[in-house]
Amino acid sequence: KIYIIIQYIIHKSLGDYMALDTLQENTYVLTGFKELDKVTGGFRKGNLYLIGGRPSQGKTSFAITLLQKCCVERTDQVLFVSLEFSEENLQKRMYFNNPSRIHIQACPQLCVREIESFADKISKSLQGQGKHLDLIVIDYLQLLCVSDTRKDRPQAIKDILVGLDLLAKKLNVAMVVFSQSPSPSEVFICIRQKTE
């Protein structure tokens, strides 16, 4: 079971979130989890979301369920970046047919720049088909490579998050990054609200 505490890092009031029955598909990506959508209004494009949990607490399973709800129950286009599992292993764990709406990049060592390059390629390809990349899911934060190994780990993680936040804004996608939490009881989502 994953318990989620939601912390908003906001520049505007929560009133900026639109009611679920009036959500615009070009602005929000619904998670498919009704209670979570009621609280957050869905994942807003251009924002970075950080979901944390202890090892072996179901983060990847949660990510795969999210993919199912976005790509099977809905028609969102999703890029799933896995640094822990191979594409073959992911296919085995997916209990639903992998539709063309899921684009998988599975590699044990990736940096933000490489993710950006792959996401750019997918985004441009979809635009050529009259479609749009809606959501990027990354599993998980601590396995991402850093470009400057001289920095300490906390600063490196901060730089990675800033880079991913900028990428979310650049491509106008919702960015969901899974992370290992430092304490057994801590599971969190940090929302960096897009400023205008």
Explain what you see.
The protein has 196 residues and is of the alpha/beta class. The chain is built from five helices and nine strands. Strands 1-9-4-8-7-5-6 form a seven-stranded mixed sheet, sandwiched between helices. Strands 2-3 form a two-stranded antiparallel ribbon. Helix 4 packs parallel to helix 5. It is globular and about 45 Å long. It starts with a strand and ends with a strand. Residues 1-23, 184-188 and 190-196 have low confidence and may be disordered.
SSE map:
Blueprint: E1 5-9, E2 28-29, H1 34-40, E3 43-44, E4 48-53, H2 59-71, E5 78-82, H3 87-93, E6 102-106, H4 112-127, E7 135-139, H5 153-171, E8 174-180, E9 188-192
Parallel strand pairs: 1-9, 4-8, 5-6, 5-7, 7-8
Antiparallel strand pairs: 2-3, 4-9
Helix pairs in contact: 4-5
Morphology: globular
End-to-end CA span: 36 Å
Task: Please provide the count of β strands.
Answer: 9
Tell me the quaternary state. single chain
Strand order of the largest sheet: 1-9-4-8-7-5-6
Q: Provide the structure class.
A: alpha/beta
